[in-house]
């Protein structure tokens, strides 16, 4: 029985993680959960799973929640998330919170030698060197939840690192994949939120439309698999059936395929190294699908992908700036305060303004993250 702490329980990945736990009560038990402030979504989850500890973003949410659950321990904020991630009563952290707010809990869980399933890619983008350094030091393996990284992780089973030629990460293209740059002028929030293949949280859906999601995934892959950026390729793949591939030294290519359903990579991260059954999963039927489509990435059409490669290559605090600027810009777009194309403009300006600091420690990263967020707000 694995006792699980789940950060981001009310989100898209959080709810699907709970579904995996629900389907395997003999394997998994939810010890603690964290969410932001989505009180009404959290109540039925707390009633059903009865976690011993709940963490919320702010005091107001804690006060409201205490009225409903008088015998549950309720903690607040980042310190609360750190506490439930290192608790001796938990074996595994599933980090499915949105944004770099997940960083400190990840680092703390590594130091406490917990098993970690990581969906929270922003953590690896903003401070990949710190996370991987700690993981090596404490001999903790990070189990990827992101479908592309789960695919690569699965293709690497039993393979030698030095025999990898390149990683080939697939990208659906997001909501606006068929639009030209000119057609992106004036697209609405509602249009941007309609992803063709996946149903996900709002921020990552916008990241998919700008292609920043793929950029963040390139940096995530660089850290998780210790592969130079020059050996990471992105290709557009319309159907999201091939979740990613690896080309090896002998030119063999390994791929992992499946119907798009995040519960598959989530379950694999939770059950690794075993595989559990998933009777209700929609099985892949290639005959029904008939054709798979691929296209070269257009870096002019998707400048966010280029910016992510540039930030990754530059290293130091540049990926922190890329990530924080993106989080802020997407949040402004979601609030209807800026246009879709303004997202990339703001990120570009933040990066242009920043002189990267080499090998930053946690304090520097937190400082640069906050400065970047302020800078983006000041552009308004
Ligand atoms: P959602 O926006 O659906 O959910 C985010 C979760 O984080 C919610 O539970 C939210 O709580 C919580 N949260 C947000 N801010 C805070 C905070 N300050 N403190 C505590 N909790 C907070 O996101 P997704 O589930 O889509 O994505 C989560 C992560 O997984 C992201 O890093 C994303 O890139 C990654 N990912 C997601 C995929 C998907 O299919 N959705 C696929 C691959 C990766 P509340 O509801 O109360 O706001
Ligand atoms: Mg992904």
Task: Explain what the structure shows.
This protein is of the alpha/beta class and 380 residues long. The chain folds into two domains: 2-140, NAD(P)-binding Rossmann-like Domain (Rossmann fold), CATH 3.40.50; 159-379, Rna Polymerase Sigma Factor, Chain: A (Orthogonal Bundle), CATH 1.10.1740.10. Helices cover 47% and strands 16% of the residues. The chain is built from 16 helices and twelve strands. It has helices at 12-23, 39-49, 59-68, 77-86, 103-111, 121-137, 147-155, 189-192, 202-210, 212-225, 263-271, 286-289, 303-314, 318-334, 340-352, 362-378, and strands at residues 2-7, 28-34, 53-56, 73-76, 92-95, 115-118, 142-144, 164-171, 232-237, 242-248, 253-257, 294-296. The protein has a seven-stranded parallel sheet, with helices on both faces. The chain has a five-stranded mixed sheet with strand order 11-10-8-9-12, with helices on one face. α6 runs parallel beside α10 (212-225) and α13 packs parallel to α15 (340-352). The longest helix has 17 residues, at 121-137. It is globular. NADPH dihydro-nicotinamide-adenine-dinucleotide phosphate binds at residues 8-14, 34-38, 57, 96-99, 101, 119-122, 146, 198, 200-204, 262.
Helices, strands, pairings?
Elements: E1 2-7, H1 12-23, E2 28-34, H2 39-49, E3 53-56, H3 59-68, E4 73-76, H4 77-86, E5 92-95, H5 103-111, E6 115-118, H6 121-137, E7 142-144, H7 147-155, E8 164-171, H8 189-192, H9 202-210, H10 212-225, E9 232-237, E10 242-248, E11 253-257, H11 263-271, H12 286-289, E12 294-296, H13 303-314, H14 318-334, H15 340-352, H16 362-378
Parallel strand pairs: 1-2, 1-5, 2-3, 3-4, 5-6, 6-7, 8-9
Antiparallel strand pairs: 8-10, 9-12, 10-11
Helix pairs in contact: 4-5, 5-6, 6-10, 6-14, 9-14, 10-13, 13-14, 13-15, 14-15, 14-16
The structure holds NADPH dihydro-nicotinamide-adenine-dinucleotide phosphate and magnesium ion.
């Amino acid at each position: 029985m694995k006792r699980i702490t789940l950060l981001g329980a009310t989100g898209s990945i959080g709810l699907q993680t709970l579904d995996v736990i629900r389907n395997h009560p003999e394997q998994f038990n939810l010890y603690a959960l964290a969410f932001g402030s989505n009180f009404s979504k959290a109540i039925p989850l707390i009633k059903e799973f009865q976690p011993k500890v709940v963490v919320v973003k702010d005091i107001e949410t804690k006060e409201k929640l205490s009225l409903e659950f008088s015998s549950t321990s309720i903690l607040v904020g980042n310190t609360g998330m750190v506490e439930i991630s290192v608790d001796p009563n938990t074996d595994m952290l599933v980090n499915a919170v949105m944004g770099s707010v997940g960083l400190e809990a990840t680092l703390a869980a590594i130091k406490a030698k917990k098993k970690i399933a990581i969906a929270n890619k922003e953590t690896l983008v903003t401070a990949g060197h710190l996370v991987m350094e700690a993981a090596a030091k404490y001999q903790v393996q990070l189990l990827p939840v992101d479908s592309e990284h789960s695919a690569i992780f699965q293709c690497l089973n039993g393979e030698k690192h030095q025999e990898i030629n390149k990683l080939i990460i697939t990208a659906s293209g997001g909501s606006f994949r068929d639009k030209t740059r000119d057609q992106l002028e004036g697209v609405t929030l509602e249009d941007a939120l309609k992803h063709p293949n996946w149903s996900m949280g709002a921020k990552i859906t916008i990241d998919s439309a700008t292609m920043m999601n793929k950029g963040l995934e390139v940096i995530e892959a660089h850290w998780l698999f210790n592969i130079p950026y020059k050996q990471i390729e992105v290709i557009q793949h319309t159907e999201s059936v091939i979740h990613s591939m690896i080309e090896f030294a002998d030119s063999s290519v390994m791929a992992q395929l499946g119907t798009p359903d995040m519960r598959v990579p989530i379950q694999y991260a939770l059950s690794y190294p075993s595989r559990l059954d998933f009777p209700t999963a929609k099985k892949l039927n290639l005959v029904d699908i008939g054709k798979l489509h691929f296209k070269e990435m257009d870096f002019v059409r998707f400048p966010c992908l280029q910016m992510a490669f540039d930030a990754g290559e530059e290293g130091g605090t540049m990926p922190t700036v890329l990530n924080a600027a993106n989080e802020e810009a997407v949040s402004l777009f979601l609030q209807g305060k800026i246009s879709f194309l303004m997202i990339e403009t703001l990120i570009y300006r933040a990066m242009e303004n920043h002189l990267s600091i080499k090998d930053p420690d946690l304090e520097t990263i937190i400082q640069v993250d906050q400065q970047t967020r302020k800078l983006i707000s000041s552009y308004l």
